[in-house]
């Protein structure tokens, strides 16, 4: 088994690493202090994404994406994940299900999204449907050659600014027929109700949205009636691996900073790294990082080699669960190594302690990943996890 990165993989890593350090890290403190970046800075970052060929890493070149392998996508996410305040999100990765659109939808949404000319938000969660996406109640019904959508969404990241919003609905109130729609910005009835404040200051909102008699042409349906969940399955695998890779990127940056500090900081007449209590923390951090990276890149390589969708889905849950939880522990230990300085907002490790919390929650909480895994284990035994071919 050869798990070494290829020359192309290493080139991708170099590009993503330089981009993160030159275009993301320098803006972290301003973003944390002001809650936003000015237009010129945002434009500079955007141009950087294009110059470093990091736009739409998850889409095919024919649509304007970079056509990266899953291994390479994980490499990019690991590198940009090191940036605090969710700045990794500036490296746009349009929803993968847009590929399933009609030629007209691909031209109108996917191609400009890959170029970075438009943003597409993804509105699944509702007040009554968080972990239980089957509880979605936002309903669509046909009226002539239009659909009319009514319901409410929450945590709808970017939906206040995105040019288009992918909205999950159920057809005619029937939960067995989940259906996706593209709702353009400014469509009447698609209204921001509230923008709650969140612990991470990323410059992006996660609004609560009301949909009241939102009337859109039937051609705005993505896929077919009832295909809503099927179309989001590949998104979940991709998003969960991305979260895992970003989590490991956060863990590595936090532990590197802590190590530098532990070598420098003197207490009781010696560098604190010399205390076994501190050294053991680094041993634990290194082990968890190594385990996480091994899981991510092994499975990414398997997916690139044609792993079946069902097994990829099963493994992505284990990887997201482990890496987000491990990164949480690593970042927390790194903050502990800094003592009181680990609580100063100017310290990237402090900001990472806020950022890393989210990774255990979205795209399925840790508990939901375990529910998925337990279901797989009941049906298929341990093979998806313990088997090795
Ligand atoms: C900053 C941010 C951005 C987000 N962006 C988006 C977005 O762009 N689009 C979008 O659609 N959503 C988004 N989300 C929503 C996110 O995916 C949900 O918050 C997440 O899925 C959990 O749902 P919930 O918050 O309703 O928690 P709940 O489902 O209410 O869960 C509460 C607790 O119960 C546990 N729990 C629930 N069911 C079970 C079970 N069966 N077994 C054991 N434990 C269980 C959970 O693990 C959790 O600990 C975002 C969330 C945040 C915080």
Report on this model:
This protein is an alpha+beta fold. The protein folds into three domains: 109 residues, Acyl-CoA dehydrogenase/oxidase, N-terminal domain (Butyryl-Coa Dehydrogenase, subunit A, domain 1), CATH 1.10.540.10; 103 residues, Butyryl-CoA Dehydrogenase, subunit A, domain 2 (Beta Barrel); 156 residues, Butyryl-CoA Dehydrogenase, subunit A, domain 3 (Up-down Bundle). The model has no long low-confidence stretch (mean pLDDT 97). Bound molecules: flavin-adenine dinucleotide (FAD). The site of flavin-adenine dinucleotide has 18 residues, from strand 1 and helix 10.
Helix content: 40-55%
- Overall SS class: alpha+beta
Largest sheet: 8 strands, mixed
Describe the global form: globular
CATH architecture of the largest domain: Up-down Bundle
Fourth-level CATH superfamily of the largest domain:
Butyryl-CoA Dehydrogenase, subunit A, domain 3
| Radius of gyration computed on alpha carbons | 21 Å
Outline:
The protein has 389 residues and is of the alpha+beta class.
Properties at a glance:
3 domains, 15% strand, 48% helix, Butyryl-Coa Dehydrogenase, subunit A, domain 1, binds flavin-adenine dinucleotide, Butyryl-CoA Dehydrogenase, subunit A, domain 3, Butyryl-CoA Dehydrogenase, subunit A, domain 2, alpha+beta
Please render the helix and strand layout as text.
Elements: H1 7-24, H2 28-34, H3 39-51, H4 70-80, H5 103-115, E1 120-123, E2 139-143, E3 146-153, E4 164-171, E5 174-184, E6 190-194, E7 208-217, E8 221-222, H6 228-264, E9 266-267, E10 270-271, H7 276-304, H8 309-337, H9 348-359, H10 366-380, H11 383-386
Parallel strand pairs: 1-4, 2-4
Antiparallel strand pairs: 2-3, 3-7, 4-5, 5-8, 6-7, 9-10
Bound molecules: flavin-adenine dinucleotide (FAD).
The site of flavin-adenine dinucleotide has 18 residues, from strand 1 and helix 10.
